[in-house]
Task: structure prediction
Amino acid sequence: MLNYFIKRLLGMIPTLIIVTVLVFLFVHLLPGDPARLQAGANADATVVAMVRHRLGLDLPLPQQFWNYLVRLLHGDLGQSMVSRRPVSQEIAMRFMPTLLLTLTSMVWACVFGLIIGLISAVWRNRWPDKLGMLLAVSGISFPAFALGMLLMQIFSVQLGWLPTVGAGSWQHYILPSLTLGAGVAAVMARFTRSSFIEVMGEDYMRTARAKGATEFSVIFKHGLRNAMIPVVTMMGLQFGFLLGGSIVVEVVFNWPGLGRLLIDSVSMRDYPVIQGEVLLFSFEFILINLLVDLLYAAINPAIRYR
Result:
């Protein structure tokens, strides 16, 4: 298991290098001039040139990348062009609200997605299956921003049960987490149903029934573990998508998280913050995939030797 972990860990290095190069090029190809935004609309060319020199934007692009890479290897993400604070500090201030929102969304989405998928597979082609898949298709089809505004209108504006914006208490997490996790719950339900139906037709399931095992034992002892192998992979991928997909939800609910910070940074062409956030999202996604691979190998040990 240790060799498998080291092998997967070393495989992350080329991916991180490629992501770093692509992020740098993408950010510097964005339209707009950060120096002009910093100097103001009424600033003359001399002032803009001074600001550009101060920000290091007058250097050749390869030299800018080299300076950025050297700082990155020393753990320095740079300084925000807008607030003049370290990028690491800007990200740290917004990280926990986004992480807690993502975890809350993932927990309820996995629980309800697995339950709906399992019920739909056991009662296949009957009314529980049809109802569950109707909910799943609705969750996939309905845009997150529209669902968020609908929930806000009903539970905040009309009924007044829940707060509208902010992250000051646990009540603030309910509507954003429901909005963010709806699509994931729908995908998990469909994927669990498909995986469990495939497992239900295997020979060892029929053998367990022939030996007199109860239906409950057949489903949860023999079927669930094997059906969970592909589902675990999907859970990891969906968690990574949640971290990036929280941007829209954070804007709708004015959530003080990384998504809102990224939108503000793009509008202000704050290159260091954009690069730091995209790198963080990429690293999180790669790390989640590593953890999923390890969990996958723990469930199915044969994978370690492939």
